[in-house]
Amino acid sequence: MKMSKMLMLTLREVPAEAEIASHKLMLRAGLMRKMASGIYNYMPLGLKVLKNVENIIREEMNNAGAQEFLASALIPAELWQESGRWDAYGAEMFRVKDRNSRDFCLGPTHEEVFTDIARNEIKSYKQLPVNLYQIQTKYRDERRPRFGVMRSREFVMKDAYSFDKDQAGLDASYERMHEAYVKIFNRCGLDAKAVSADSGAIGGANSAEFMVKSEVGEDDVVFCTKCDYAANIEKAEAKAELAEKEDLLEKEEVETPEVKTIEDLEKFFNVSAKKFAKTLIFNADGKIVAVMVRGDREVNEVKVSNALGTVINLDMATPEEVYKATNAKVGFAGPIGLKVDTLLVDEEVSKMYNFVVGANKTGYHFKNVNYGRDFEGTVGDFRNVTEGETCPVCGEKITISRGTEVGHIFKLGTKYSEAMHGDFIDEDGKKKPFLMGCYGIGVTRTLASIIEQHNDENGIIWPLSVAPYHVSVIPVNIKNEEQMEAAEEIYSALEQIGVEVLMDDRNERAGVKFKDSELMGIPMRVTVGKKIGENIVEFKLRAEGENEEINIKEVVSRVKKEFEKNGLKLK
Fold first, then answer.
1. Which end of the chain has fewer CB atoms < 10 Å from its terminal CB, N or C?
2. CATH number of 469-565
3. pTM for the whole thing?
4. Helix (H), strand (E), coil (C) string for 329-383
């Protein structure tokens, strides 16, 4: 491509709206332009990278035995109503009506569509297993679009669904996808780690997220400092810290005027937060639920929702709801005499001795409270883990880092096939539901994550596998015939062997051309300058700082060497 014929969109200044490196650089390098909040147009350079990522995904999915097709992005409400998710999915769904007032949505995800296709086309176990995938634009009305394409309202996604006759088949499909995902992210130059995760609104069990560490990531990811254990904080198992055993003391009501917070209680009772159990009250789809955790812990709302079953909305109770449950103002809730539909007690609380709780009476608390003697509830893991706790696998310390999800794989089981009557005839002649798996990759988010991991103060540093162009050829002076002839020669020779070449034939200063090449992240640069009379050009790798003088006849072999080093093939 000749840059004189390109729509050049590079920016020297950082756009005010951009907060993170990928967002800044995608705008500055001319990969995309904003059209509305969370909605972007992909410009030629950005589209080339996007297609390169898609092609890597496509190759590995095909190698894993999956078949590509394309479903409609406009989905009739009936399918979502069949699965029970039309109302459950929430406000993120873009809902539309046609001229006949029939309800549709712009697909945020495609479980229902794939299940519908399978139930209509697959009739016998002889047709199984099947794995279908697509690469398509999805639509979600994010409450707060931010960080460019990291959280946008329109994004490209690869979603795949496997259909198997039994659990062994599903397990095998899941493992094939896991292996394919490792290959995909490795080929994209991404350091991504599979972590145990919650399935969320998709449903099912045994899910894993592929996370990349990022300071601006939207998820907390728990890592063991010794073994391979890793989990999203929503899923991370919390091991109860055992309190030192004490003789049970008599429960006592204590007046605590204007003492509401854990910090206030620590000062008032002159003990640590570990001697308190706080009771938080939630509204779970209209039912009032109380959750107890130790004073220094935080409630994990995902774990709570999973314990309650299918919960669409889990919100903190209003002051009015708190008063109805406790007969007290906010800040004095406790488990004794509490009027709620469900009381969930974190395991850690059940193992404490002589602790302090709210007395369900404004201005009062109970001390010397003990689980089993003074109150009971449903015991389980309902809290977030914290830095420095012990790993549930090996017992060593854990660490917590921010991360961004780029892929997610699920074992859905029969969640959708049973709801939508997705059945097949088994070997014994009986009708059975498909066992399904679900496998997603955020293509646009993967692109942004690559930039987050591969950049410097000068711009993007694309891995060769996804770069929009492999080599930038820069004649220093376009009015110098000898330089232009040599640049054209290099350009043509590289194109002939399958290299994507960008030739900067603009009438600009050399410094401008170098800055643009670095900003756009082109992996290799060949500069044709004053030494061309000696058949000498400069060769530079974007990821390294030094220029290398080589003979013009060595350019092709030098470029080939980089492809070989990166495990990439040319013509």
1. C
2. 3.40.50.800
3. 0.83
4. CCCCCCCCCCCCCEEEEEHHHHCCCCEEEECCCCCEEEEEECECCCECCEEECCE
